[in-house]
Design brief:
Layout (H helix, E strand, L loop, with lengths): L6 E5 L5 H9 L4 E3 L14 H8 L3 E2 L3 E4 L13 H9 L5 E6 L2 H16 L5 H7 L1 H5 L3 H9 L7 E5 H6 L1 H11 L20 E5 L2 H7 L3 H10 L2 H10 L1 E5 L5 H23 L10
Amino acid sequence: MSQIPNLFIIGTQKGGSTSLYHHLSKHPDIGTFREKECNLFMEGVDIPKKLEALGPSTGGDRYLLDGSINYCRYPRHKGVPERILEHVGRDTPRFIYTIRNPVDRLISQYYWNSERYGEHRDLLTAAAEDETYVATGQYDMQMARYLEHFSMDQFLFVQFETFRAAPQAEVNRVLDWLGLSPVTINTDVQLASTSTKTTRSLRLPGLHALVSGTPALRRAVQGMLSDRTIRRLNKLLSREVAREPVDKATRHELLNRHFLESINKTEEMLGLDLSSWKQL
């Protein structure tokens, strides 16, 4: 248990966490495991056994970084802050939370799932039926669980839009917050991202809907098959098509039905100006 993480990138999915993790992992004072998303503090995980499976960390020993985005996917994954508190302590952890316009984030997740896992529902139906699409972008709700156990000064928020526009400046801001020296990052590195030009369309949507017609059934299928197998099957059973832009009316409905109240609460909670997220 000596190699327990003390630095966390807790989200958000499709919010730039992978890129930020990559850049921070190059700092000589930040150690990492061989997996970005260790998921050490998920429900049912035997932490000592998982640490043994991960193997020894590499890199610096001032911080040990865990970049698991599932740590901010309540209510799909519950009890994460409590387990971090139990195993890491109250004052030790530092948390970096990458946040993104929740409508853009949801759309990116939707197309990511379409490309890789055969998401067959239309965008509005998927958002209504699968809690992770909406809850992941309700940052006030996610943070409320952490603030029951940790103080706000243990958190740093990185806005995806700012990070994308000025990655070097944002990485140095993170390092300064951690009390570490700045580093020069390689902004030419291409990491996995959602295509903005193409997506995939199922060849047999009726069959896919029958096999994975409910969120519970989809999770059961995903539990039986490896991620790689699911992606290969999706590629075989779908074809690449042009990705159509999401129209303004759909974006407006997503904003007002799912996120506007949450954005207002997030602004107040975090002391950030998120007015641009309310503009379509």
